[in-house]
Amino acid sequence: MSDDPIESLPPRSPVSTLPLRPRLLVVDDEPLILEGLTRLLAARDYDVETANGGCEALIAIGRQQFDAVLLDLGMPDLNGNEVLRFVADRSADTPVIVVSGDSTIDAAIRALRGGAADFVRKPYEPEELLRRIDNTLTRRRLEKENNHILQRLQQSEKWHRFLVNSSPDFIYTLDCEGRFTFVNDRVESLLGFRSEELLGQHYSLVIHEDDIARAEHVFNERRAGDRGARNIEIRLKCNPGMRRPRLMNGRCKAVELTATGMYDEEASPFEQRFIGSYGVAKDITERKQAEETVHYQAYHDLLTGLPNRALFRDHLGLMLAQAKRTQKPLAVLSLDLDHFKVINDSLGHTIGDELLLVVGARLRQCLREGDTLARLGGDEFSVLLPTLVSRSDVEHICRKIIQVLSKPVYVKGHEIYVSVSIGACVAPEDGDMIDSLIRQAEIAMYQAKSQGRSRLQFWEAGMQAPYSERMQIEADLRRALARNEFVLFFQPQVDTLTGEVRGFEALLRWWHPQRGLLTPADFIPVAEESGVIVPIGDWVLRQASAQMADWRRAGLPPVRLSVNISARQLENPDFVDSVMRAVQVYALDGHQLELEITESLLMRDFEANALKLGRLSASGIRLAIDDFGTGYSSFKYLSRFPIHTLKIDQSFVQDLDREENLSIVNAMIAMGRGMNLNVIAEGVETESQRARLQQMQCHEVQGHFYSAAISSHEATTLLARHARGFGRAEHQVAG
Ligand code: C2E
Ligand code: MG
Ligand code: MG
């Protein structure tokens, strides 16, 4: 141990180690005291600076921050109290310990009032002084730490309040009676209540009447911790008096509710005191709406809003069970519009859709409240008639339906006539299984169609399903290409003046292994619907091209060959390329190939078709409008296509005796010639038709008068004879 009394003092207490080396300013006008103090403090590892009087002190304090100031009071230049005031003004948190020879109570009080942290009398005991300095520094540090913690608390409280209030969920607390003690700001946008309006109110104010029991259950269980109630679906009521109800999007909100009981932790561990609940309500209105939409879509036809097949089956199941109890029969009707495909194809899908809407509405008018009307797809509707008295009830309703639907429908300026074929079966008489009842009604409906349409047919045991025949045709069609069952026939197109063959139309035939020779009407619709028409059409193109190449090799005069193109083919993205390929492979002159497209098909996808046909026309390929006059094209649009030929539909030609048809045909020929087109009249069967057409300056005709469609061999013979200069009479023989 050292002799120096200062050295022998105990070290500075560790609590005052903040900052590591506290910086002190010692102010005294007495150099000896100043020096003594400095030594004492420096030995205790304080960083000491001195000021020899009040003025020097002010300069030092102005320059830097001290952890504490030891200040003498009586100084000649500027006394301690003034320095104290300066410190209080400048750096209030620097503690000042007054070390003064003035030991009067007054001096001490004055100094302390002036902001001194402590007052030590001279002469001081070094240990006492050091202890007081330590204490002051420690107190200052604790104060600082406290302030810091307080600030952090305030910040954190602000932060939590922000989080709670900007939460997308409604957050609440309830007291033990179920009254709101806290609600976050979200409640305003969710339910239209301001938080003040809800505080103190019972929760039942915002619970939907039908969900009160469930809410009571949730809140009364008072389960705490992990056992709290979670994700309970409940509806909350919006403020009925709110100003902007539209913003709330409805009068109640579906929420998922959590609730956890709160218990007084101070209470005895044996008897927990319930003090309320807290929890969150998450708005799931949108999710519920989406679920409802999905559910709706799964069970309804989106166009008409009517039940679909699934819902129809459900209803039928329920009604069958009920029928068993009540012992009353029920009926299932299958309705199908007659010739709807024609309307859809010629007028377009938009008009077809509107027509279906009108039909749906009219059907509904004919039915009672408890009946189910469903759309099973396309133009197919189903009706369920529960609780019948007899079959004559069904007849009565169907008569009404047929009559109501027979009135014309007006859609976008079109007057459309529809009729409906109805098949019916009655349960339990005809069976009591859902699917077989629906199927039997469908079979009866097909029967009604085959018996002349626009009528009702009851199902009878042993009735064959024509549609299984369709399935058979489809299956056979898929095999027909591979088995080489198709064949092209050729119908000559003849010059009315000279009788010369100008070209042929290639017409498809199918040698069916069981049914014999089939014409397009027997299989093209099925091929269209199933898409098999695309490879078949491709085959027709190649086959026709090969035929022309054969004729060329045989040295026969060049003729035009027309090929019919169907909707699916034209829509196929590969269409243009497949035509070009055929032309290239057989090295044809593009002008020899003509594509026949019906006008309604052309109009269906106007822009895309114009593009495709433009490309084909650029390589010389010709375009004919088939069945002209039966569609609804406008000349304005027609003129946008690169057309070479108009083919007047045979329905006009066959009834040329009717004045009306005569003038229509006359106008069509005049128009075609005006547009510089080749006009061909189809279906010419008699000499008088031919003569009239010739009179009207129709220069080409096609029809049984000259020849029906003939085989490749016959067509070759015809061409060869023709090349040798045979006349018209021979052509007729060829048919
Ligand atoms: P279309 O293109 O209007 O062909 C004319 C139809 O009228 C042919 O019937 C033809 O045999 C028939 N016909 C010709 N002259 C007369 C006549 O004087 N009187 C009567 N009553 N009928 C006559 P077909 O061969 O049964 O073809 C029917 C329809 O099938 C064609 O109508 C065409 O739209 C379609 N079709 C034929 N071949 C093909 C093909 O290769 N591909 C596609 N996609 N469709 C084809
Ligand atoms: Mg044709
Ligand atoms: Mg035609």
Let me know the CATH homologous superfamily of the largest domain.
Answer: EAL domain
Task: Kindly provide the radius of gyration, computed on alpha-carbon positions and rounded to a whole number of angstroms.
Answer: 51 Å
For the secondary structure, the number of strands is 26
Shape: elongated
User: What is the name of the CATH architecture of the largest domain?
Assistant: Alpha-Beta Barrel
Helical run tally:
28
For the largest beta-sheet, the strand count, sense and barrel status come to: 8 strands, mixed, barrel
Poorly predicted regions:
727-735
Average per-residue pLDDT, rounded, comes to 88
User: Which strands sit side by side, in order, in the main sheet?
Assistant: 18-19-21-22-23-24-25-26
For this entry, give a set of tags.
Alpha-Beta Plaits, 4 domains, binds ligand C2E, elongated, Beta-Lactamase, binds magnesium ion, five-stranded parallel beta sheet
Question: Could you walk me through the main structural features you see in this protein, from its secondary elements to its overall organization?
Answer:
The protein is 45% helix and 21% strand. The protein has an 8-stranded mixed barrel, surrounded by 5 helices. Strands 2-1-3-4-5 form a 5-stranded parallel β-sheet, sandwiched between helices. Strands 7-6-10-9-8 form a 5-stranded antiparallel β-sheet, sandwiched between helices. It is elongated, with a radius of gyration of 51 Å. Strand 19 and strand 20 (516-518) form a beta hairpin. The protein has 28 helices and 26 strands. Helix 2 (54-63) packs parallel to helix 3 and helix 16 (466-480) packs across helix 17. Bound molecules: ligand C2E and magnesium ion (2 copies). One magnesium ion (MG) binds at residues 505, 564, 596, 626.
